[in-house]
TrEMBL record:
PANTHER family linked: ABC TRANSPORTER PERMEASE PROTEIN MG189-RELATED-RELATED, SN-GLYCEROL-3-PHOSPHATE TRANSPORT SYSTEM PERMEASE PROTEIN UGPE
Keyword annotations: Cell membrane, Membrane, Transmembrane, Transmembrane helix, Transport
Name listed for the protein in its UniProt record: Carbohydrate ABC transporter permease
Main location: membrane
Transmembrane feature ranges: 61-80, 92-112, 124-144, 165-187, 220-241
Presence of the UniProt keyword Glycosyltransferase in the record: no
Gene Ontology annotations of biological process type: transmembrane transport
Superkingdom of the source species: Bacteria
Lineage of source species: Bacteria, Bacillati, Bacillota, Clostridia, Eubacteriales
Family: Belongs to the binding-protein-dependent transport system permease family.
Annotated Gene Ontology cellular component terms: plasma membrane
InterPro entries assigned to the protein according to its UniProt record, in alphabetical order: MetI-like (IPR000515), MetI-like_sf (IPR035906)
Bilayer topology annotation: Multi-pass membrane protein
Annotated localization: Cell membrane
Length: 256
């Protein structure tokens, strides 16, 4: 993609035209562009306002969803990990089953619920189901399981209540699992295609994931540059959260 973003349009069409445009001949890919150019980047940044609209739409979908996963998922995961109540195992099993179900299975009921609530063709139709996703709760619960019981017992002896224990002990010590869930949630929401395609009919609400296939069919240079700019936040978030992903995986296997 980086080479394609710097490649002249005629050379790019000659290289990929037989594949993407159905032309005669065989596709090829040169090692380096014959004459590097920044024209596709300038065209995208200066002459393509819809790119910025859809980039902002993506941000409006992703960040509320991830914030909701934190506000909803962390307390629920703490309850599953530390509280013992009737039906806990059954309820957690239901969460795991829902986590394993692909979107195609829950698409119809989700559509009916969104339509019944009057949320169709709004960003909330995508945000709300993502906020209550079960996968972040599963990851966070495994991280909370690594918190030593002796530490919680000591906090209880010192007079700490459930909320104080959660905020002062659970959240700091469970931060690797929380950040792991948020990183994975960001990557999933940023690249989501099926959910926006199902719930959003107005093109002005589309995220970049739905915009890229359209420009790929029109202009290859813009498609390469757009793909790079869309990939950049995911790469940066992953590089930032890689350490926490590793810590979350390690903490889930620790025993007191």
């Amino acid at each position: 993609m980086a080479e394609g973003a710097l490649m002249p349009l005629d050379e790019l069409n000659a290289a990929l035209g037989p594949v993407l445009a159905g032309r005669e001949g065989e596709a090829f890919w040169p090692l380096l562009p014959s004459w590097p150019t920044l024209q596709p980047l300038a065209e995208l940044l200066l002459d393509t306002p819809q790119f910025f609209v859809m980039f902002w739409n993506t941000c409006k979908l992703v960040f509320p969803t991830v914030l909701g996963q934190l506000l909803v998922g962390a307390p629920a995961a703490w309850a599953f990990s530390r509280f013992r109540f009737r039906g806990r195992r059954l309820l957690f099993t239901v969460y795991i089953v829902l986590m394993l179900m692909p979107f195609q299975v829950t698409m119809v009921p989700s559509y009916l619920v969104a339509d019944g609530l009057g949320l169709m063709d709004t960003l909330w139709a995508v945000i709300l189901p993502g906020m209550f996703s079960t996968f972040p709760i599963f990851i966070m619960a495994k991280g909370f399981d690594a918190v030593p019981d002796a530490l919680l017992e000591a906090a209880a002896l010192d007079g700490a209540g459930p909320l104080q224990t959660f905020f002062r002990i659970g959240l700091p010590l469970g931060m690797p699992g929380i950040l792991s869930a948020l990183v994975l949630g960001f990557l999933e929401c940023w690249n989501a295609i099926e959910q926006p395609m199902t719930f959003l009919k107005t093109r002005s609400l589309w995220p970049l994931s739905l915009y890229l296939p359209e420009i790929a069919a029109e202009k290859l240079g813009l498609a390469m540059v757009s793909s790079l700019l869309m990939l950049a936040p995911s790469v940066l978030i992953f590089l930032f959260g890689q350490k926490y992903l590793e810590l979350g995986i390690q903490s889930s296997g620790l025993k007191e």
